[in-house]
Write a structure and sequence with these properties.
homotetramer, 188 residues, alpha/beta, Rossmann fold, 5 strands, 14% strand
């Protein structure tokens, strides 16, 4: 199997983000044919089409669009904010989908993990995030779904996700994602 | 390429359904490696778990579950009813997803065409129909999207979809669906 | 406060439905100005526009449309099937929204309780059910939301919802619904 | 009728935004009991919970949260970006919903107008925006819905929305919104 470069996008921007802990565990537990790296999305100014029309792209846009264009697939790890996913993720999606006709996500496989302090909100963020992927042409893995509840209880005192059964689940999940990435990538 | 058996599910049950006309055109214009046939969903009683618990499945359930299990993929053609898709389609999805642990849709590729007399509603039915597909594990083709507006104006006096540009679009759409079907099927 | 007649629609059709147990508790705990009664939706044939075009309405349609037209508001109690709500509920919505121009739901207040054996699916059914309500013009109470998890553990051996904290929650919920019903009804 | 202060939030940040033209027309055509003013959302840094936890709120957060808290209702005017609404709007929603327990939107009425250069995307942005409103407890007007297609064709050479039938529609829409605002506000 060829090596695939996967970008990891975390929806929560806070330093001690639980989603970042989940993402780090997913990276650690991924099979060998996936090379994953965390992408920075917190420095992207809110999307404004004037940047594109006036050819005055912020440097962060230039960097991010090039990164997305260079990658083979994406893992999104999102919290729930108000029964949907955070602005930071939608902003990243929008920035790299533009300027018109230059959709850097186009045709690349993806997967969505959602996590929550409670038990329920993760589903709403996860499902809402799937709709933009239709237009962006990012085929999202359907199964297994990954909804991680009571996420704060799964970490150790250093903020590392150490819960054994969640780690086992994430390992299985990343193996399925590996198959999905190769299925979609090798067909295009 | 191996031959793939595709079931076509039409959300509107009326005899002169515009969606059925769209589905017939899609069948006619499909590439050779796809064998498509229309499935009957209008005779399925509303799903009731007691049928499964009591082992008294309606005959239509037995037939339909066997059909879905025997097929390689699915084309859904849906109208919009009240900013979502019709009950007839949700019922078909639910019936063949049960009894628990016997999801006949599992892992098979799909695509969704939505049509409307107006111009806008097709999007809402199409997007709403994608959420059950996550749990059913039916990977849905992301692009091209198929939203067919003013559908009544595209038919001739016999109710056949004869509009040239729509037929051209449907041909391109079915070629993309052929690639999607083989991508997903051959990976499983 | 004037007395309001509220129809209760339960999405699960099985005889021992957990949602029906929740609905019965909600009816029992409702404040005095709401008169609630359970509506039958399981006998409605799948919606087919030919019934309307040909003026051959099934008797169940005639009955149900008259019931909806006579009521002041609605309480929906839904399980989750495949990350959305059941066909039986969508069918009921569609039947009483037609024939075109005769939307019997129009302008009447509603609320949605969703329940699940697990912990998470209730959110997806609840949110999905809100989209048809936009077109049907049924203003849905936003807060409190009602997602009832592990619903089977809340019932006694006769299938009655006896869990004290859930009953307390449902009482508070129905008091909020009473205010919502009067707010919307008295404004029209 | 008492006077109500309404904040107008425009999802597109570009200077010549079509949505801003629609919003300006809605403001101009609104009935007398509504005082509408445009809110700035483009200067809000992407929401990061560390700002709240560390008590180092950006000045724009302080200003915006105070504005939302002081207002009686909200009109959202949104474009469609990738089958959903823009990050700028989600960010504004999230910022004024926090810190935890300080939801400045709570209980106030809202309405959503969506506009698009094409004909279809407006529905998807509009429906997606309704889900966060459930948790934020912003009751959204159900009818009339406002989907404005081919929006660029409705403006004059100064970027003003001058199309007569759209202006007539917006006037009717704002009259309905006036009733909705008073219905919800006066009940709380």
């Amino acid at each position: 199997m060829s090596q695939k470069q996967i970008g990891v996008l975390v929806g929560s921007l806070r330093a001690g983000s639980y989603c970042r802990a989940v993402a780090n565990a997913a990276i650690e537990l991924a099979p060998a044919s996936l090379t994953l790296r965390m992408l920075e999305i917190g420095d992207l100014p809110l999307y404004n089409q004037d940047f594109d029309d006036n050819k005055t792209q912020p440097e962060a846009y230039v960097r991010f669009r090039a990164e997305i264009a260079s990658l083979d697939g994406f893992l999104f790890v999102t919290p729930e904010y108000n029964r949907s996913f955070p602005a930071a993720l939608k902003n990243a999606l929008d920035v790299a989908s533009r300027p018109y006709g230059h959709n850097a996500w186009n045709g690349k496989p993806g997967a969505i993990i959602s996590a929550t302090l409670g038990t329920m909100g993760a589903v709403s963020a996860n499902l809402a995030l799937r709709h933009p992927m239709v237009f962006l042409n990012v085929p999202i893995m359907q199964q297994p779904e990954a909804y991680i509840g009571k996420v704060d209880s799964l970490l150790d005192e250093h903020g590392k996700l150490t819960n054994a059964s969640t780690r086992k689940f994430l390992q299985t999940y990343m193996e399925a994602f590996e198959r999905w990435v190769h299925t979609i990538s090798d067909a295009h």
